[in-house]
Specification:
CATH class of the largest domain: Alpha Beta
CATH topology of the largest domain: Transcription Regulator spoIIAA
Distance between the termini: 68 Å
Strand content: 25-35%
Oligomer: single chain
């Protein structure tokens, strides 16, 4: 049997599995809940609670589970599975590397920790005043739109007395964006402050980051320079020079 609980904004779904799960449980309960949530949200978070009396799937349910995953492959922002059964935990951990979103396994005693993990951000943005015209923005983990809203307020506070600024963008621990809305928030933050930007140093190791620096230099018309992670101090020196 499948029991579904949806939180107030509809973006977080809790699913309880008990007894034997059938194809009808998917088609009549789980699939409608997920499709209704995705009609309102770009991506959803799924918390699966596997009750001790869970016996497994029948063949129809196994096929329905596969179809659900394939048809909504990019629709999940995060998945947590709470279970004490060793075979369930092992199955999820083996599948996690190929799933399109962060996936975590918790024991039943950790249910509240799982709920906290589902609600918290997987990433953060730190704005640091380096003194003079220089500001550092560090992108950590995988970012959601709320982190950009908080970062914009912090950046505006730092820049309120400046007519221009120089920016160090630290991407050493950046893992990307949680969906297109987060990517849009990234570009919105850049657009809202580009008129004040004098020059920018980008620090990281990924090839795409170096490419992004070259593209930004041509499109934005701002002096930019890329530095490998080991040269973060050289990046700061380059910002302050001249």
């Amino acid at each position: 049997m499948i029991t579904v609980h949806t939180n107030s904004d509809g973006a977080l779904i809790e699913v309880e599995l008990s007894g034997e799960v059938t194809s009808a449980d998917y088609s009549q309960t789980l699939v409608p809940a997920i499709e209704a949530a995705l009609a309102e949200h770009e991506a959803i978070r799924l918390l699966v609670i596997v009750q001790p009396e869970f016996k497994g799937y029948d063949l129809g349910a196994a096929w329905s589970d596969t179809k659900l995953g394939l048809s909504h492959w990019r629709g999940f922002d995060r998945i947590a599975v709470v279970a004490d059964q060793g075979w369930v935990q092992t199955s999820i951990r083996l599948a996690a590397p190929i799933l399109p979103c962060p996936t975590q396994v918790f024991e039943m005693a950790e249910l509240e920790a799982a709920r906290r993990w589902m609600r918290e951000s997987l990433g953060s943005i730190h704005v640091t005043d380096l003194g003079g015209p220089c500001v550092q923005i560090s992108l950590l983990g995988k970012l959601d739109p709320d982190e950009y809203s908080k970062a914009e307020k912090a950046l505006d506070t730092v820049l309120q007395e400046r007519e221009s600024f120089r920016l160090l963008i630290d991407l050493r621990e950046f893992d990307g964006w949680q969906g297109l809305s987060a990517l849009a928030a990234h570009f919105r933050l850049a657009r809202n402050h580009i008129r004040l930007l004098d020059r920018a140093a980008i620090v990281g190791d990924a090839a795409w980051q170096h490419i992004a620096q070259r593209v930004a230099r041509h499109i934005l018309g701002v002096r930019t320079q890329f530095f490998p992670s080991a040269e973060v101090e050289n990046a700061k020196s380059w910002l302050t020079a001249g």
